[in-house]
Amino acid sequence: MDSNKIAQIADVMEDRGLTRVRVEEPDGSAFELERGVAQAPAPVVVAPQVVAAEAPLAPVAAAMPAATTGAPGQETPASEPAAPAGAEVKAPMVGVYYAAPAPGADPFVHVGSKVRKGETLCIIEAMKVMNEVAAEADGEVLSINAKDGELVEYGSCLMTIG
What we know:
This protein has 162 residues and is α+β, with helices and mostly antiparallel strands. 15% of the residues lie in helices and 28% in strands. The chain has three helices and ten strands, in the order H-E-E-H-H-E-E-E-E-E-E-E-E. The protein has helices at 3-16, 51-54, 57-63; strands at residues 20-24, 30-34, 87-90, 95-98, 114-115, 120-126, 129-134, 139-144, 151-152, 157-161. The strands form three sheets. It has a four-stranded antiparallel β-sheet, with no helix packed on it. Strand 6 (120-126) and strand 7 form a beta hairpin.
């Protein structure tokens, strides 16, 4: 294999966002190309000794109590609701989330459903393969965070079981 063909394959990999490719030649030989993925720059951490970085935090903290309304001792809920307590069911892979075994069928679970360890909670389609996601423990479905037919990322919270 010549270096021009390898360069062309590397360009295609970059254009399509591929990190690994296996190429088999007609003579039976094969090779794999793998490239690293560019990572986002690491966040800059300011040392605690810097007074200028701490100054803007004080007014924000002081403004927090002013955001409460209503009777004394009662606070309004925060703008983001607190996540339900329980175990998160995370996506084991990137793919399309399906709540039901077939289009038009009832979903595997609803919020409030009681589930047992090993019971199917949903399906993630990856590369035309349907992969069942099973409950890791007994419990009740507290929230469902993914929508049917939605692309989910690896490690994203699909639902919470408590």
